[in-house]
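[agent] plan:
  1. take the single chain provided in the ticket
  2. run structure prediction with default settings
  3. attach structure tokens to the ticket
  4. add a short note for the reviewer (M.T.)
[agent] executing step 1
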Amino acid sequence: MNKNSGNHLICPVCGEGLQKNENTYVCRSNHCYDISKYGYVNLMRSQKSSKKRHGDDKLMLKSRHDFLEKGYYKPLLDTITEEVLKKSGGEDITVLDVGCGEGYYTANIKNSVGKCDVYGIDISKDALIYAAKRDGNMSLAVASCSEIPVESGSCDVVLNIFSPTNAAEYSRVLKPDGILIKAVPLENHLFGLKSNIYEKPYKNKTENSELEGFRISEFKEIKYILKLDRGEDIVSLFKMTPYYYKTSREDQAKIESKTELETEIEFGVIVYEKTINEQL
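[agent] step 2 finished; step 3 output follows
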């Protein structure tokens, strides 16, 4: 972790600020959290599920890492980065990526913006291992969007890229003039991929973009046709989606045998501003 990291992390038990001490974080009430050898700290207050695995598994993470490294979603990265740069205006800012996954967007935005203190949280420990390898100067914590272990009113930007939404928590951690940047799949996203799996492929349901406590200040659509001509990239795309886990072995084989694929890529990038200035 960054030597200066932890300034905005809080104890999930008592809510007091955490201070870094050697390889641990400690609050004034002496609640102590070890920093793992991989560089993240576990601030998940409780595992409310009996499942041994939380978040994306290793196969999905590796597939996403391999796919994104080829730059196939760079237009989305560039659009989000542009919005963060507009917000920073060349000044130091604090960015929080909620559900940061393996850190592709988190780390690249940090490196592009330069003057920023970056935090990433995810419920998957395996995801944070990938993220830490991308950039060891980010503050990474195992946590959920329902209980974000970050100080109220400390963030200039919250990123919510294809992950669950908790408007109340986002509003809490954002400064009064902070922004939320949310990325969502649009109706035809990956329709070509689904057409090669299902006899009757379905379009994505578009979610309601309205969030309590926020107003939409900008909405951008990113649409293009992605042409893949390497079997390994086609398989990586497939395995990084939920479709892989919801299909039979026979349907999986349809994709695994392909050497070419064309599919629609459709993203929506929504920028929100707070409408409620909470008393911090």
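[agent] step 4 note for reviewer: Residues 170 and 258 are 41 Å apart (CA to CA).
[agent] ticket updated
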